[in-house]
Write a structure and sequence with these properties.
Blueprint lengths: L11 E5 L3 H11 L4 E5 L2 H10 L4 E7 L7 H10 L8 E5 L2 H9 L4 E4 L5 H25 L9 H14 L5 E8 L2 H8 L1 H21 L2 E7 L2 E7 L4 H13 L9 E6 L7 H14 L8 E3 L2 H22 L3 E10 L6 E13 L3 E3 L5 H7 L2 H23 L5 E4 L2 H4 L4 H11 L7 E6 L7 H14 L3 E6 L6 H4 L6 E4 L1 H5 L5 H16 L3 E5 L4 H10 L3 E3 L9 H16 L1
Parallel strand pairs: 1-2, 1-3, 3-4, 4-5, 9-10, 12-14, 14-15, 15-16, 16-17, 17-18, 18-19
Antiparallel strand pairs: 6-8, 6-9, 7-8, 11-12, 11-19, 12-13
Length: 564
């Protein structure tokens, strides 16, 4: 079989001049090396450029023409993204027009009359070569989806601005899309790409109004380096409003971190701090903006210390498990039913640290499983100790994080804990937050179903926090609904909250699920919950979280009640 050689087409040149003699003269010079097409005025030139925008290598443009001048053509080209990449060499006999043409974007000029043929060919060839080189660079320079700078080019240009324009006080902004992987998983990558394109377009529009540059830094993160803005919350709202209009059925939430300009702080450090601020508001839908300041810096240093100290805390048993009781409030008097295991950190330097200071941090960086495994082991051992000491089995609920669900050793680890401590599966209850069920829902549901089939009881924590829909609830493999404490907080004063609690209890009863209300602090709240039919209650009305030795007093009291 003969192998055919593909003949490469010559590069295309558009010659624009209202004088036929000039068009012919340039045609003679160029036709041996290029494919030449012609236009005799600016209007025809634009039509040809649009018709051949992907093929044209260069335009030779006369300035003084009827219908539309060369200057008007350049104005149109400069405003047209489709044509902007095509280089233009102006043709003129007037020296005074050269500077204006160059300012308007002309790559070079050729003077009339056209007598130096070799010079014309050299200039055309050089400009085409430079333009093609720039286009190759531009391909690597910009993210194709958003047309913002790619990461490496962004920092190169940011560093140049920092070095050569110190008078421009540039702030660093990091904009991130919450749970972008879920948006792609639930709505398809095409929808996710639309979100990115719309954000990129609005960032470009913003930069047209101010001085700065921007990059699509990672899949769902945008970096903006711009002069100080009067109101960053308004800027975040501007971007949020754009994504709100994409689809009425999909919620896309943005968060923003800002590090204001500081003398002698290089861009990469500014963006590290803006990124840290942005990460600190991960999942914070009420306040998704963080301006980096000294308080944030202190918090960042604390977070880093906690991250560094975690493994030592596990090895030295600085982590302490407390237990908060859950009472069956449909019994008279209410009876101890189970407990929830809650972690505390007795740090040798920082003292007792509450979980709110470190659990979100470890959830954000994937190390929460280290804490969870510790709590599971301590809780299983404690159930066994109380069983041996009091001949009394108290079920304990432990948290199952999203990171745990994706651990291939999860089932084996939990089963081994039950077997090693001589427990039954229902003694160690597994709490899964409502949001986890919509985070790669199929994987989560499959894992939870298998655990439930083994014999573990599953509690949905934080029900009502706004993630799941009621039609999903019937498909979720759960045994207990745990109401988010925000419903309980105001039920004495707010009739709407009370009706919502009644609705949740009714739905749970219909689905044959028990209901736990957490955060109960007053007798009035307790009475209202009892009247709704709520099964279990936990909160400071009965007890704060207690260390094991103090919790034993509650167990002893329960045993005494049983004995009469």
């Amino acid at each position: 079989m003969m192998k055919s050689n593909k003949i490469q087409r010559p590069q295309m040149v558009l010659v624009v001049d209202d004088q036929e003699i000039n068009r012919d003269a340039l045609g003679v010079i160029l036709e041996d090396d290029y494919e030449v097409i012609y236009a005799e005025n600016g209007q025809e030139a634009l039509e040809q450029m649009r018709a051949h925008s992907s093929e044209l290598s260069i335009v030779l443009l006369d300035l003084m023409m009827p219908v539309m001048s060369g200057f008007e053509v350049m104005e149109h080209v400069r405003a047209d993204e489709q044509l902007r990449h095509i280089p233009i060499i102006v043709l003129t006999a007037e020296k005074s027009a050269e500077l204006q043409a160059l300012k308007m974007g002309a790559a070079d000029f050729i003077t009339k009359p056209f007598d130096a043929h070799e010079v014309i060919l050299a200039r055309v060839g050089r400009i085409i070569e430079l333009s093609e080189g720039r286009q190759l660079i531009s391909t690597a320079e910009h993210d194709k989806l958003t047309m913002l700078y790619s990461r490496n080019f962004f920092f190169e240009y940011a560093n140049r601005l920092f070095r050569y324009h110190p008078e421009m006080h540039m702030d660093a902004i990091v904009l991130n899309i919450e749970q972008f992987h879920n948006i792609n998983a639930l709505n398809g990558r095409e929808f996710g790409d639309d979100v990115l394109r719309i954000i990129g377009k609005e960032i470009r529009a913003f930069l047209h109004e101010t001085e700065g540059i921007a990059s699509r830094f990672e899949a769902d993160e945008f970096d903006i380096y711009c002069v100080k803005q009067p109101d960053y919350r308004a800027l975040l709202n501007r971007f949020q409003e754009k994504v709100n209009g994409i689809s009425p059925n999909v919620n896309v939430h943005l968060r923003m971190g800002v590090k204001p300009w500081r003398e002698e702080v290089e861009p990469i450090l500014l963006f590290d701090r803006a990124r840290a601020a942005c990460n600190m508001v991960r999942g914070n839908y009420q306040n998704p903006l963080m301006i980096y300041d000294e308080d944030v810096r202190t918090r960042e240093l604390l977070n880093q210390q906690l991250l560094n100290d975690l493994r030592t805390a596990v090895e030295e048993r600085q982590l302490v498990v407390f237990y908060q009781p859950k009472y069956n409030v449909q019994a008279d008097p209410p009876r101890l039913s189970s407990a929830e295991a809650l972690i505390r950190w007795k740090h040798p330097e920082l003292g007792m640290i509450s979980p709110g200071s470190f659990v979100p941090l470890f959830e954000g960086n994937g190390q929460i499983s280290i804490v969870d495994h510790y709590v599971w082991e301590e809780a299983a051992k404690q159930i066994a100790r109380w069983k041996e000491k009091y001949n009394y089995t108290l079920p304990v609920s432990v948290n199952l994080s999203r990171a745990d669900v994706f651990d291939p050793t999860l089932e084996d680890r939990l089963v081994r804990l039950i077997q090693d401590n001589g427990l039954e599966y229902r003694n160690l209850k597994l709490e899964v937050t409502e949001s986890a069920y919509t985070d790669n829902a199929k994987r989560v549901l499959d894992v939870i179903r298998r655990l439930r089939e083994i014999g573990f009881e599953i509690e949905m924590d934080d029900f009502g926090s706004g993630y799941s829909s009621l039609n999903m609830l019937s498909d979720m493999p759960i045994d207990v609904l745990k109401m988010d404490m925000k419903f309980v907080r105001n039920i004495e004063e707010n009739e709407t909250d009370l009706r919502l609690v009644k609705l949740i209890v009714d739905i749970a009863k219909y689905l044959k699920l028990d209901v736990v209300a957490e955060g109960v602090e007053t007798e009035g709240q307790l009475a209202l919950l009892q009247n709704t039919g709520c099964d279990l209650v936990q909160g400071y009305y009965f007890s704060r979280p207690l260390p094991p030795d103090e919790f034993e007093k509650l167990i002893q009291r329960e045993i005494d009640l049983e004995r009469g």
